[in-house]
């Protein structure tokens, strides 16, 4: 596992892109037989919007998973971020930047909290982030019954709905964030250290990496990404929504996208490009189901099966590689 | 822990020292005193018994969750399983008394089956249990909504509801003794006996160190799968009681998985496995319910339940991890 130290960050498995192309091709065919059109402008736009929201979360999730950790509080961070942003803005363009700033600051604070619980108090990341998630859930359940606040119109018009051709601004934002994360992983000291910590914490520590600092940074970045996704959702919905994160299943779906993208849940292996592929795959499946007008509840069943199956396939592959 | 693993007879030693029941019993006593101060008649046998009856479902779930957690896994599907069971029961019984027993049998089978799938996917396909069971959560909730077109249909028969509702009236000295309490007594006895049996000890060994257990001839996958089946079975029993007690809704089991995990942690069971007692887990569930009752008496909103649970989980795990690193 110490070879992870020299392993390039973007060893994204090409498998996900093959799966993506196949899924879209088959989906296109099935939808065409059904009398629809998968790649019409409206469907493509909505596919990219779905991908933008999930993608922002999943890119952040990739960083913590590569570091051998996990963040299950993202869904609540997203909900909280929509509320903080929309309530601070109050429908006023003048408060646009303070709203964004405050939402990101709150998210970063939660990430810091997650990171410190995992590294300093040494709580298992799953439990630590579920615990923090439950704290936030109680706050949201207690304080909000429905949508609150109003997003600044300028943000709704730009991030929410503006697009260049069929590509929404929000998808470009995702590409920007993913590019930055790719750069951080592949070209910076932080990225190399993160991969080392995820590969083998003990070896990393002995090689002079400050494990806690690296992991806390990853958690803060992950929460920032979730916060950004929240701001984006606030711009789409026009207000803060206390349950948007959980109802969108952003916690599980982001992990599924990460795993589909070839990042190992055990840490140390993986990359952002694969995650973006995983996100597009999940968004593509969603678009195909929408075109075929599949029942929303049936869709949820399928999502559950896909998530388990995806992880199972990768688990088999890892076992095959690790077999003595 | 490390010393214990090197010695030949570690299980017995560990059971007495770690997973001690002293903290949870003290906490329970403190809560009782606090409640007695605020609401003196709460401690009268009838109201205490009815409280115990109301808490039975969560105590059963905690017992089931104990087996899964002590073996080193999690079961996050129990809440959705309870919901699914209640909705399925209502639709199948459709207020027809004669269908009660077949449906009860079906629910128990259903619980076992879900547990079996959770267990096999986790152990044989090596999917981390939180993903397996969260995926199962999505599947169960989606399937049950799909099957009932978005709103629960049918109704439970009076025969079905009596498990959660009815009681032996006028028992000398105690007043009303709910049927649920008999279920509780039977399950608690069975769970304690099971946890002290060879299987129970094996399960703790599996959670403590799966590799060591495997090398000493334990079939780890089988032990863990049985643990998941027990949790599914506990969820089925809890659903039968809850359906009778609070009726049919898609919210019947919402959040119960985290309540069960919180209860188990409160009862001194180590998340990650290898340490704890099922009796502690059940006392933990009782303590948690009592804490909620207390908060209720003091006018704290029920919406804050999750926050309380989150704080308990983080605190309990933090305390035990600080203690184990300082040792």
TrEMBL record, chain A:
Its membrane topology: Multi-pass membrane protein
Subcellular location, principal: membrane
Localization per Swiss-Prot or TrEMBL: Cell membrane
The entry's keywords: Cell membrane, Membrane, Transmembrane, Transmembrane helix
Transmembrane segments: 48-66, 73-90, 96-116, 123-140, 167-185, 214-235, 255-285, 297-315
GO terms for MF: transmembrane transporter activity
Assigned GO CC terms: plasma membrane
Protein name per UniProt: ABC transporter permease
Organism name: Actinoplanes aureus
Taxonomy of the source species: Bacteria, Bacillati, Actinomycetota, Actinomycetes, Micromonosporales
Automatic annotation (TrEMBL), chain B:
Record's keyword terms, sorted: Cell inner membrane, Cell membrane, Membrane, Transmembrane, Transmembrane helix, Transport
CC annotations in GO: plasma membrane
Domain of life from the UniProt record: Bacteria
Annotated membrane topology: Multi-pass membrane protein
Regions crossing the membrane: 21-39, 51-69, 76-93, 99-120, 127-147, 177-194, 226-246, 252-271, 278-298
Localisation per UniProt entry: Cell membrane
CDD domains: TM_PBP1_transp_AraH_like (cd06579)
Designated name of the protein: Autoinducer 2 import system permease protein LsrD
Any one Gene Ontology molecular-function term assigned to this protein's record: transmembrane transporter activity
């Amino acid at each position: 596992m110490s070879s992870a130290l020299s392993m390039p960050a973007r060893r994204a498995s090409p498998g996900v892109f093959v799966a993506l192309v196949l899924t879209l091709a088959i989906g296109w065919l099935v939808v065409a037989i059904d009398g629809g059109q998968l790649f019409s402008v409206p469907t493509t736009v909505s596919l990219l919007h779905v991908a933008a929201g999930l993608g922002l979360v999943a890119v952040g999730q990739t960083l913590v998973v590569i570091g051998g950790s996990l963040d299950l509080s993202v869904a609540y961070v997203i909900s909280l971020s929509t509320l903080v942003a929309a309530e601070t803005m109050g429908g006023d363009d003048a408060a646009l930047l303070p709203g964004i700033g405050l939402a990101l600051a709150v998210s970063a604070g939660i990430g810091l909290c997650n990171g410190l619980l995992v590294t300093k108090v040494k709580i298992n990341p799953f439990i630590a982030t579920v615990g923090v998630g439950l704290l936030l859930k109680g706050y949201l359940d207690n304080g909000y019954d429905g949508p609150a606040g109003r997003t600044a119109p300028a943000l709704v018009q730009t991030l929410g709905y503006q697009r260049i051709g069929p590509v929404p601004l929000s998808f470009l934002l995702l590409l920007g964030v993913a590019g930055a994360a790719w750069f951080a992983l592949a070209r910076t000291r932080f990225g190399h250290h993160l991969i080392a910590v995820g590969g083998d914490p003990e070896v990393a520590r002995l090689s002079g990496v400050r494990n806690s600092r690296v992991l806390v940074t990853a958690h803060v970045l992950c929460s920032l990404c979730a916060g950004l996704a929240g701001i984006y959702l606030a711009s789409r919905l026009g207000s803060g929504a206390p349950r948007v994160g959980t109802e969108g299943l952003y916690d599980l779906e982001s992990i599924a996208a990460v795993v589909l993208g070839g990042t190992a849940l055990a840490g140390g292996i993986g990359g952002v490009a694969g995650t973006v592929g995983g996100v597009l795959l999940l968004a593509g499946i969603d678009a195909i189901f929408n075109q075929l007008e599949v029942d929303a509840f049936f869709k949820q069943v399928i999502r559950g099966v896909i998530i388990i199956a995806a992880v199972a396939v990768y688990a088999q592959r890892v076992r095959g590689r690790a077999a003595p | 822990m490390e010393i214990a693993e090197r010695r030949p007879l570690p299980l017995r030693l560990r059971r007495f020292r770690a997973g001690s029941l002293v903290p949870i019993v003290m906490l329970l006593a403190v809560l009782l005193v606090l409640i007695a101060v605020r609401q003196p008649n709460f401690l009268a046998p009838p109201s205490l018994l009815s409280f115990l009856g109301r808490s039975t479902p969560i105590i059963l779930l905690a017992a089931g969750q104990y087996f899964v957690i002590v073996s080193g896994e999690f079961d996050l599907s129990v809440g959705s399983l309870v919901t699914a069971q209640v909705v399925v029961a209502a639709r199948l019984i459709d207020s027809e008394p004669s269908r009660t027993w077949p449906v009860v049998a079906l629910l128990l089978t259903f619980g076992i089956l879900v547990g079996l799938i959770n267990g096999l996917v986790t152990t044989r396909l090596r999917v981390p249990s939180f993903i397996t069971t969260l995926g199962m959560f999505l599947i169960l909730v989606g399937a049950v909504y799909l099957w009932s077109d978005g709103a629960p249909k049918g109704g439970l028969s009076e025969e079905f509801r009596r498990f959660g509702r009815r009681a032996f009236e006028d028992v000398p000295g105690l007043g009303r003794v709910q049927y649920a309490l008999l279920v509780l007594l039977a399950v608690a006895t069975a769970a304690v006996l099971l946890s002290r049996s060879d299987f129970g000890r094996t399960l703790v060994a599996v959670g403590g160190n799966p590799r060591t257990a495997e090398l000493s001839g334990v079939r780890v996958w089988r032990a863990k799968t049985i643990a998941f089946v027990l949790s599914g079975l506990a969820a089925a029993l809890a659903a039968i009681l809850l359906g009778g007690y609070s009726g049919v809704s898609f919210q019947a089991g919402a959040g119960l998985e985290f309540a069960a995990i919180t209860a188990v942690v409160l009862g001194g069971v180590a998340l990650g496995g290898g340490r704890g007692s099922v009796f502690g887990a059940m006392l933990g569930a009782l303590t948690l319910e009592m804490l909620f009752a207390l908060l209720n008496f003091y006018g704290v909103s029920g919406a804050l339940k999750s926050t309380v649970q989150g704080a308990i989980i983080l605190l309990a795990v933090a305390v035990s991890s600080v203690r184990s690193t300082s040792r």
